[in-house]
Tetratricopeptide repeat protein (Symploca sp. SIO1C4), 108 residues
Amino acid sequence: YQQVGVFAEASHYKQVKAKSLKGLAEIDRLQGQLEAALPRHRQAILLLEEIGAKCDLADAHYQLGLTVHQLDRQQQALDHFAQATRLFRDIGAPRQVERVEGSASVSQ
C-alpha cells in the first residue's frame, strides 16, 4: 500500500500516477476510510482531465461517486455518476454506462 503511494508520487507519467491514486482511493473506500479516499479521487480526476484520458476519467468519476454515496452525499454521487455516464457514452462503452446507471438508481 505504501509502496504504491511512493510509486505514484515518483511517477513522471500522469496517467500512471492517476491510476495509482485511483487504486489507493478504492482501497481506502473498501477499508471504510472514506474521507481519506476523497483527495486521492480528486487528484486522480485532475490528472486525467489534464491528459484527456476519457476511459480512466469516467471510471474515476464513478469511483468517486461510490465513495460520496457511502458518505450520504447523494447529490454529489449523482453528479459524478452523470459525468461518468457521459464520458462512457462518449467512448462507446454501453456496459459501463449500465453499471453506472445501476449505481445511480440506488443513490436516488
Observations:
- DSSP finds six helices and no strands in the chain.
- The domain at 2-107 is CATH 1.25.40.10 (Serine Threonine Protein Phosphatase 5, Tetratricopeptide repeat).
- The CA atoms of residues 32 and 107 lie 18 Å apart.
- The chain has a mean pLDDT of 91.
